[in-house]
Each structure stands twice: as C-alpha cells, then as structure tokens.
Design brief:
The protein is mostly beta strands and about 60 residues long. Helix content is about 0%, strand content about 45%. The chain is built from no helices and four strands. The chain has strands at about 5-15, 20-30, 35, 40-45. β1 (about 5-15) and β2 (about 20-30) form a beta hairpin.
Length: about 60
C-alpha cells in the first residue's frame, strides 16, 4: 500500500467508513530492510495512492 510519503506491506484487516485498518504491518523504505510496526495502523482511504494485492498461495 502506497501513500504519498510512505509504503507499507500489511494485511487489510477492516474497512470502517473512510478508514482502513491494517495489521501485520511492515514499513518499507528505499535502501532499508522492512521495519515491523507494532499494533494496528489506521489510514484514511483518501491518502492511499495505490494498493498491490498479492495472490493467495493456497493449493
């Protein structure tokens, strides 16, 4: 998930009106290893520039 100033790898846990709740979040920054983030992150949908959805790996 990309915002204007940040990128995250996460599980979209819930959608609550204009808000997205993310869990298992990692902050992604150029030139650095992914940094785990404690707890949940709540983001306004309007701030999201794009989302990349990965296909499930189930059999």
């Amino acid at each position: 998930m990309n915002l204007p100033d940040k990128a995250f790898s996460a599980v979209l846990w819930a959608k609550r009106g204009p808000l997205l709740v993310l869990r298992d979040v990692q902050l992604l920054e150029a030139g650095r290893a992914a940094q785990p983030v404690d707890g949940e992150i709540v983001i306004e949908r309007a701030r999201v520039e794009f989302v990349q959805v990965l296909a499930g790996g189930g059999g």
